[in-house]
């Protein structure tokens, strides 16, 4: 089959790889009809390269049609249409029953000290082949896949694989009081959805992003928007009676604008042998923290900071004096996808499309166009906000 593979820093290519096969009774094989490029994929494209291997199949936002199931899968059959959550969870361990599927005790990558295995996301998360491919082997298919109807287009459902539940969890964790104000740093795909979920829940939402096309998209959904500036904290306080927003979602993560020192560290990591680079990441502070520090500054005293952007350093400096003094609540973590999908599914099927799932995709292609779109997405060129790949195209 054809699949998008990692070949090196800022280098991906479409290659012929072996078709996946059933390996365990709880496996399924899914023919991929749509699969998206996620902002998290850009970390593999550059920062997390030391944990990647040439030829790794990437991608973790897929959906498609079940082609085959193992003997232990009784909830699915050939021909079912399913969305595949990006984290692989068993559904029956202590963590899964607690609604913490991203910490599944059965699929945890213990040798790396990581949580649940993820599709297409480096040896840190199990080196499981990903979904930017024609076919995908799905472990724990007796629990993970979300079965959906056949009437609506893929775009209605595709984002249940990652970014929509991730945004939902970010807003849940933000703990915004009724009628309160939520600021969202970063209006990429997760930030777009977090903003719209906030509006849907009746909050005042202010989105911050340096890219005009992203601000314009958010504004279409009732979001107030600001350009990113050095005085963004003061601007947000001025808009909120001098206090700052009740909660802030950081939907940017470790590749934020305005972090030149960490940006240099990212480049330096790429020059080190993989084992040395891994050690540097596991013991050093290599995150670009501009968005995180701006969020800490902007949120009101006693407010909540919700992190959905991915961070990769283990010794990244945090302004703990300020955080303690402001009495902030901080919540974060990989999304527990299956904990939220049942609540979100009726909204994506609603004719009114209250979360705007049909107004997110800006670029489409078959697999062959993926390498060029990775570059365009990373550089934020041509108004590129969300890319969907159709492997059968």
TrEMBL record:
<dbReference type="InterPro" id="IPR011032">
    <property type="entry name" value="GroES-like_sf"/>
</dbReference>
<dbReference type="InterPro" id="IPR013154">
    <property type="entry name" value="ADH-like_N"/>
</dbReference>
<keyword id="KW-0479">Metal-binding</keyword>
<feature type="domain" description="Alcohol dehydrogenase-like C-terminal">
    <location>
        <begin position="189"/>
        <end position="255"/>
    </location>
</feature>
<feature type="domain" description="Alcohol dehydrogenase-like N-terminal">
    <location>
        <begin position="25"/>
        <end position="143"/>
    </location>
</feature>
<keyword id="KW-0862">Zinc</keyword>
<dbReference type="Pfam" id="PF08240">
    <property type="entry name" value="ADH_N"/>
</dbReference>
<dbReference type="Pfam" id="PF00107">
    <property type="entry name" value="ADH_zinc_N"/>
</dbReference>
<dbReference type="InterPro" id="IPR036291">
    <property type="entry name" value="NAD(P)-bd_dom_sf"/>
</dbReference>
<comment type="similarity">
    <text>Belongs to the zinc-containing alcohol dehydrogenase family.</text>
</comment>
<keyword id="KW-0560">Oxidoreductase</keyword>
<dbReference type="GO" id="GO:0016491">
    <property type="term" value="F:oxidoreductase activity"/>
</dbReference>
<dbReference type="InterPro" id="IPR002328">
    <property type="entry name" value="ADH_Zn_CS"/>
</dbReference>
<protein>
    <submittedName>
        <fullName>Zinc-dependent alcohol dehydrogenase</fullName>
        <ecNumber>1.1.1.-</ecNumber>
    </submittedName>
</protein>
<dbReference type="InterPro" id="IPR013149">
    <property type="entry name" value="ADH-like_C"/>
</dbReference>
